[in-house]
Write a structure and sequence with these properties.
With 606 residues, this protein is an alpha+beta fold. It folds into 3 domains: 1-7 and 34-40 and 50-63 and 227-341, Poly(a)-polymerase, middle domain, CATH 1.10.1410.40; 66-221, Beta Polymerase, domain 2 (2-Layer Sandwich), CATH 3.30.460.10; 392-603, Glutamine Phosphoribosylpyrophosphate, subunit 1, domain 1, CATH 3.60.20. The protein has helices spanning 34-37, 51-64, 68-90, 107-111, 133-150, 202-221, 225-240, 249-261, 271-283, 311-329, 333-337, 374-383, 392-402, 452-473, 479-492, 539-549, 556-569, 595-603; strands spanning 100-106, 120-127, 163-167, 170-174, 179-186, 350-352, 355-357, 407-412, 415-421, 438-441, 444-450, 504-512, 515-521, 527-529, 532-535, 580-586, 589-592. α7 (225-240) packs across α8 (249-261) and α16 (539-549) packs antiparallel against α17 (556-569). The two termini are 58 Å apart.
Length: 606
C-alpha cells in the first residue's frame, strides 16, 4: 500500500452527497504485507545474508535484558507482596476495610519482557467491595506492614528499606532496587456503581481489568521466545524514537505476535525477518485510518487497537517507519537499534553508500482550532439570505447549471422527448462509459445540465427511490411522486451544515396514468411541470425558439425534430449523432435512442 492511499487530510470539508441512512458500511483496507504476498509472488533471487542483522538484534536484546541483580531484586519483592495479598484473599483476619477477590500479576514482569533500568512489576488486586480512596490507603498500609513482618528474620540493608506511595491507580511499594505497582480494581459488575467523588476512577478500573485479560491472552498465545525478544526491541524503539512513543505496551505485544506468527506456515519467523516485517507493516499503513490494523483479541467486536492513537500520531508512526525502513534496507540497522549514532536519522537526511534517505513529510494536517460555534456561524453565513433575498450557495449552483451543456425537454401528445449535448473531449474517449440521458425506471427518464458527478449521485438515489416504492407497493412509482422525493433530497442540501447544494438542474420525464409528464428540478429543490423547456448554456435562446415552434398537438416524431432544432440554436460547432443524446418516453416506456436512429432524425433536418 502506497503511503497516502489511506491517509487522509483531516481539514477537508464535506460536499454534496448523501448522508444519514445512506451511510456505507466500513470496509477496512489490508495494507500490503510482503510476507503474506510471498505465496503469490515467490522470491526470484536468493535471500539476502541477514546474519549480521540477526547478530545485532540478539546483542541488543542481551543489552536490554535485566541484569541478574535486577531480576533477583524484583522477583524477591514481588514474591513477598504476592504472598501477603494472597493471604488477605484467603484469611483477611481483622482487616475489614475492603475485601479482596483475586490477585493477578500482569505487565512486562509477568510476560518476561522487562527492560533493564526499569525494574517495575505490576500486580492487579480485584476487590469485592467498591474501591474507595480510604480502602486503597488502608490496604497499602496493611501490605507494607505485613511485608515488613516477613522481613524481620532477614538482614535488611538500606537498599531493602520499603516505602509506599499512593496514586490514582493504587499504590507503589518500592525499595532502592525494585518497585511493585499494586493496581486496584473491582468486579466488573461493580464498575457501573462507581461514583466520581467517592471511588477511584472507573476508566482506570476498567483498564486494570483489561490488563488481566491481556496477560491471560499473552500467556496462552505468545509462547515463542522470539516474540519476547521482539517486544523488548520494540519497547526500546519507542523509547528512542518519538513517533513510536504513543504505541502502548499492549499494541507492541500484538504487533510483535502478528509479525512473528501471522504467516502462511504458521511457524515463528526468524527474528531478523520479523524485525524487518514490523517496519514494512507500519510503513504500508497498518496503523492508519481505514486500515484493518490489528483487532484486539480481548474485546468483543473488531476493535482495532490503533484507533486509540490520534490522527497525527498514526501519521507520524507511518512516516517514521517508512524512513527507517529505507535506512534498514541500506544497512543502517545499527543506528536503528541504537548501537551506533543517534535517532536523528528519522528526522534528518542521511546518506548510505551514496544513497540519500530523506525523511518523509507528514501528510495529515490538523485543522486549526476554532472557537465554539465558529464553524456553525461560518456555515450559517453561507446558508443565510443576503440583502437581496437570495441564498449565495444556490446562486453558485445555478451558475454551474447555466454554464453546463444545454438540455431540452418537450412533451408531445403521445410522449416526451429529452435531449442534451454530449461532446467528447478526445477521440480516445469511450462514449459508452457515461451517459447523460439515463433511465430511472421502466417508465421514467432523466437528463441534466450542470455538474456530472452530482447528477450521477442523484440518478443513483432516484433509482433507489423507484425500487423501494415498487418493493413496498408492488406497482411503479408515479412520476410526480418520484419528482417530489428527488426535489426533497435536493432541498435538504440547501439548509444542512457540512454540505452544499447539488450543482445540477434535472429534466425528468415519464408516462403515467395514460399520459406523458415533464418536470424540471432546480438546485433549490423547487420543481415545475413543463410542456417544453430548455436549460443550461444558451437556455434563453432555446426557450425563445420553443415558444415559437411548440404546439400541444405535436406528435412524438415531430417533437424529436423540434428538440434537435432547439439544441442547434445554442450548439457550438456541427451537431452530429455522436455529440448529442436523445431519449423518448411513451406508453411503451422510456428508452435512449441509439446513434443510427439519431442519424435518421438528423438526416430529415435541413
Amino acid at each position: 500500500m502506497v503511503r497516502g492511499g489511506i491517509r487522509g487530510r483531516g481539514n477537508m470539508r464535506g460536499s454534496g452527497g448523501v448522508r444519514g441512512h445512506f451511510k456505507k458500511a466500513f470496509i477496512p483496507r489490508h495494507p500490503f504485507d510482503l510476507t503474506l504476498a510471498e505465496v503469490v509472488f515467490p522470491r526470484v533471487g536468493p535471500a539476502p545474508d541477514d546474519s549480521a542483522l540477526t547478530s545485532a538484534l540478539l546483542k541488543r536484546n542481551q543489552d536490554l535484558s535485566p541484569t541478574a541483580a535486577e531480576q533477583t531484586a524484583i522477583a524477591n519483592l514481588v514474591t513477598k507482596i504476592q504472598s501477603v495479598l494472597d493471604n488477605l484473599v484467603v484469611a483477611p483476619g481483622d482487616f475489614n476495610t475492603c475485601q479482596l477477590d483475586e490477585v493477578r500479576q500482569v505487565g512486562s514482569f509477568k510476560k518476561g519482557t522487562m527492560v533493564t533500568g526499569h525494574n517495575v512489576a505490576d500486580i492487579v488486586v480485584i476487590l469485592k467491595t467498591l474501591p474507595t480512596k480510604e480502602a486503597c490507603e488502608a490496604l497499602s498500609k496493611k501490605v507494607q506492614e505485613d511485608v515488613k513482618n516477613t522481613m524481620k528474620t532477614e538482614v535488611v540493608t538500606k537498599a531493602d528499606v520499603l516505602k509506599t506511595e499512593l496514586h490514582d491507580k493504587g499504590f507503589d511499594i518500592s525499595n532502592r532496587n525494585a518497585c511493585v505497582k499494586v493496581l486496584i480494581t473491582t468486579l466488573p459488575q461493580n464498575i457501573r456503581k462507581l461514583e466520581a467523588d467517592t471511588h477511584l476512577n472507573a476508566k482506570i478500573m476498567q483498564s486494570h481489568l483489561a490488563a488481566i485479560r491481556h496477560s491471560r491472552w499473552f500467556e496462552e498465545n505468545a509462547h515463542h521466545s522470539s516474540i519476547k525478544v521482539l517486544i523488548r526491541l520494540l519497547r526500546d524503539l519507542c523509547k528512542r524514537f518519538e513517533a513510536f512513543q504513543p504505541l502502548s505496551p499492549w499494541i507492541l505485544d500484538l504487533l510483535a505476535h502478528f509479525a512473528i506468527m501471522n504467516n502462511p506456515s504458521r511457524q515463528a519467523l526468524p527474528i531478523n525477518l520479523a524485525f524487518r516485517r514490523v517496519f514494512q507493516l507500519l510503513a504500508a499503513g497498518l496503523f492508519l485510518p481505514g486500515s484493518a490494523g490489528i483487532s484486539d483479541p480481548c474485546e468483543n467486536g473488531h476493535n482495532r487497537v490503533h484507533t486509540s492513537l490520534s490522527l497525527e500520531q498514526q501519521d507520524a508512526c507511518c512516516m517514521s517507519a517508512q524512513t527507517l525502513l529505507r535506512v534498514l534496507a541500506h544497512g543502517g540497522y545499527k543506528h536503528i537499534l541504537g548501537l551506533e549514532g543517534n535517532t536523528s536519522i528519522a528526522r534528518q537526511m542521511s546518506v548510505w553508500d551514496g544513497v540519500v534517505v530523506s525523511p518523509v513529510e507528514a501528510v495529515y494536517v490538523k485543522p486549526e482550532d476554532k472557537k465554539e460555534g465558529e464553524d456553525d456561524e461560518e456555515m450559517m453565513e453561507v446558508l443565510r439570505d443576503n440583502p437581496s433575498g437570495k441564498l449565495v450557495q444556490i446562486e453558485y449552483a445555478l451558475a454551474a447549471v447555466a454554464a453546463g451543456a444545454p438540455s431540452v425537454g418537450i412533451m408531445a401528445a403521445n410522449g416526451v422527448v429529452l435531449a442534451t449535448e454530449n461532446k467528447h473531449k478526445s477521440i480516445l474517449y469511450d462514449e459508452q462509459s457515461v451517459h447523460k440521458v439515463e433511465t430511472i425506471a421502466d417508465h421514467i427518464g432523466m437528463v441534466y445540465s450542470g455538474m456530472g458527478p452530482d447528477y450521477r449521485l442523484l440518478v443513483k438515489q432516484a433509482r433507489k427511490m423507484a425500487q423501494n416504492y415498487f418493493l413496498t407497493y408492488r406497482e411503479p412509482i408515479p412520476v410526480a411522486q418520484l419528482v417530489q422525493r428527488v426535489a426533497t433530497l435536493m432541498q435538504e442540501y440547501t439548509q444542512s451544515g457540512g454540505v452544499r447544494p447539488f450543482g445540477v438542474s434535472l429534466l425528468i420525464c415519464g408516462w403515467d396514468g395514460g399520459r406523458p409528464y415533464l418536470f424540471q428540478c432546480d438546485p433549490s429543490g423547487s420543481y415545475f411541470a413543463w410542456k417544453a423547456t430548455a436549460m443550461g448554456k444558451n437556455s434563453i435562446n432555446g426557450k425563445t425558439f420553443l415558444e415559437k415552434r411548440y404546439n400541444k398537438d405535436l406528435e412524438l416524431d415531430d417533437a424529436v425534430h423540434t428538440t434537435i432544432l432547439t439544441l442547434k440554436e445554442g450548439f457550438e460547432g456541427q451537431i452530429t449523432a455522436d455529440n448529442i443524446e436523445v431519449g423518448i418516453c411513451d406508453q411503451n416506456g422510456f428508452r435512449r435512442l441509439d446513434v443510427s436512429t439519431v442519424k435518421d432524425y438528423l438526416a430529415n433536418i435541413p
